[in-house]
Amino acid sequence: MELRYLRYFVAVAETRNFTRAAEKLSISQPPLSQQILRLEREIGTPLFLRLKSGVELTEAGEAFYKEARQILLLTDQALEKTRGIARGINGKATLGFACSSVFHPILFKRLKKFHTLYPSATLLSEESNMSQLMQSLREGTLDAAFVRLPCQTSQEFTLQTITQESMFLVVREEEAKTPLETILRDSPLILFPRELAPSLYDMIIHFCHEQGVVPQLATQAPQMSASIAMVASGFGFTFVPESLTIIAMPGVSYRKIKAPQLTTEIALAWRRWDRSPIIKHLLSLISTGSD
Question: Range of 206's domain?
């Protein structure tokens, strides 16, 4: 049964008149009458009682009308949903977040703007370390990821920088005015495991070497944010991006240092061949710099 038969039938059932239904459908009346007759022959029973003043539904026609309307409604919804997905206003995408990136407010300002513009689009989220994010992007379980740079393995993906920030020195309050050189030389350095973000790890170690110090490596922190609590507990000192300084940890002091080489970026990474309309809209929003 062709879908147009259902549309013709519903139009006649709602107008109770072949002429008015034909006008509504923008077709002539004779072909419409022929299509309804074909439909009745296909079903095997009359759907209308033909009257001088118009038509009335038979009992079978009443039952068929309810089902036909539902079928057309579901069909229209399916078409609209499919077209919406193609335009990137419906559907879903899965985004990854580097653990340290979630502290930067700019990300969620952009995502809130995206939700306002595309309320029917669903963004699923997953927080993980850089190593796992790169693997998930490679395997296709993530559509895009907010990553922390530098990251050597991210170069296999397309990157759109969102913001740049300096690294801050994190020490105990009593060391707030201790010279940087003294802290680097005398205190243990708290870092995350290198395999989680090798390039960022190496950047910090290289900075220490530039200052003429081979750092004493303390007990490792599972994540960058956890290293702040370890500083408060007396394990040593660390470096974190400026956005993490919003973590108000008692006994901890954050210090901005003059070290342009200690800078990090947050970027959106996605596969070069990805053509997801939702990701395209997200990229467009990010590239405009609109909050």
Answer: 164-264
